[in-house]
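Q: My labmate handed me this sequence with no annotations at all. I'd like to see what the chain might look like in three dimensions before we decide whether it's worth expressing. Could you predict it?
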Amino acid sequence: MSNINKTVVVGMSGGVDSSVAAYLLQKQGYKVQGLFMQNWQNEPGEVCTSEIDFNDASRVCDQLNIPLHKANFSDEYWDRVFKEFLSEHEKGRTPNPDILCNREIKFKSFLDYAIKIGADHIATGHYAKIEHQKDKSLLMRSKDLNKDQTYFLHEVTGKEFAKCIFPLENLNKNEVREIAENNKFINYDKKDSVGICFVGERNLKDFLKRFIKFESGDIKDSDGNIVGTHPGALLFTQGQRQGLNVGGVKDKPELPWYVYDKSIELNEVYVCQGEFNNFLMSDGLLMEEMKWINETIPPEKLECEVQVRHRGKPVKCDAHFMDQGVRLRFSEQIRAIAPGQSAVLYKNNECLGGGIIAKALKD
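A: Here is what I predict for the chain of 363 residues:
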């Protein structure tokens, strides 16, 4: 089927990936338009990175001679992403707002907006792949496994993926930068964004202080000894090493300390020594409701792979689907599982979906 006369609206972030995605679609014969999403309203006086990103996106769109729309989704972001992000932190969990942002904004608000302005499809610069099979759209890992972003996309549904194109599915990052450099895009060497999608590269503790009250408390080792103090247990997550300021403890070896648990009720953080201390290791996990990308009748048991963080090693597991959640048993131990993060299930490089981690389990 010819791509001519098919309109694709590309989510333009100002980064190199979405810029190359727009270029590739244009080369394939699509009528391409860009859409820049503003998802966060900065406070007066703050450095507004979104203005810099919008200018970069504008310059690339000018080079490609395509229109660039701008939509403000900050109200939707606040109501459907940020409030849940704060609520999870207050419960002492470690949320992943990028997953919520994809589900609620980039593949919902953006899709609705794009269709209103005449789009046949939407596209983004994500490293992921879609396979269409009969009435289903499957989410598959990208060619560049180091950049694969299917973990962040597992709460988007097949119905939304049916309207979506991922032009970078068969490219690695170096190839993308090379295409951008060859086309003299201003952002060909722009570094990848890091940090939480709306916070950017600012200090998370200072940012959260604007919305949540923190109280200092004790840091204890596995024997119950106080080895330090913390500015607020809510700020720490399993596996964390930075920001503990624990060291030189009497009768303890000079090994780094890591968070293995915390108590919000007692406002205490619990630490152990050694990167692979047994306190940090888990044999399985309990997951809340499984969100399937494509609706299916859940099996009683499924042999698959689980990934508990972006770029985490996929580990074979048995998934047992119960009335209340899913119990996973790993083929090998996984380190530093954090409640509130997502466990995402895969089978033969297909992302099946996932759910929020309720707790880590040991045999």
